[in-house]
Amino acid sequence: MPTLNLFTNVPVDTVVAADILKDASKAVSKILGKPESYVMILLNGGTPIIFATTEEPAAYGELISIGGLGPGVNGKLSSTIAEILQTKIQIDGSRFYIKFYDVQRSNFGYNGSTF
């Protein structure tokens, strides 16, 4: 159930979006050691964002997971997602924040219930 929600002020066409979604899904699955069939990635392009007083390309992400997160894993996720954004839509890593949420099973709903 890892879910990565990404927001960027860069307009993203469908081809680039598909590449980002696929690359991020594989990376989150691999780094967290969870099946990719459980991973959800959302990409919100063209979102108004100002960061460090400018509207230059920037991004914000939130990754939610039931377990698997921690200092080492979070650092690897942060650098990997930043690299994907740099490669695909030229967002410098210094213009990207990501927040990690490690949630309890009872706080995440699925299929009309909780995990």
Automatic annotation (TrEMBL):
Tagged with keyword Secreted: yes
Keywords carried by this UniProt record: Cytokine, Isomerase, Secreted
Keyword Nucleotide-binding: no
GO molecular function: cytokine activity; dopachrome isomerase activity; phenylpyruvate tautomerase activity
Enzyme class, spelled out: isomerase
InterPro entries found in the cross-reference section: Macrophage_inhib_fac (IPR001398), Tautomerase/MIF_sf (IPR014347)
Major location (coarse): secreted
Subcellular location as annotated: Secreted
One GO location term (cellular component): extracellular space
EC number(s) stated in the UniProt entry for this protein: 5.3.2.1, 5.3.3.12
Pfam families in the record: MIF (PF01187)
Chemical reaction(s) catalysed: 3-phenylpyruvate = enol-phenylpyruvate; L-dopachrome = 5,6-dihydroxyindole-2-carboxylate
Family annotation (PANTHER family): D-DOPACHROME DECARBOXYLASE, MACROPHAGE MIGRATION INHIBITORY FACTOR
Family note: Belongs to the MIF family.
Name the UniProt record assigns to this protein: L-dopachrome isomerase
Source organism (scientific name): Cucumis melo (Muskmelon)
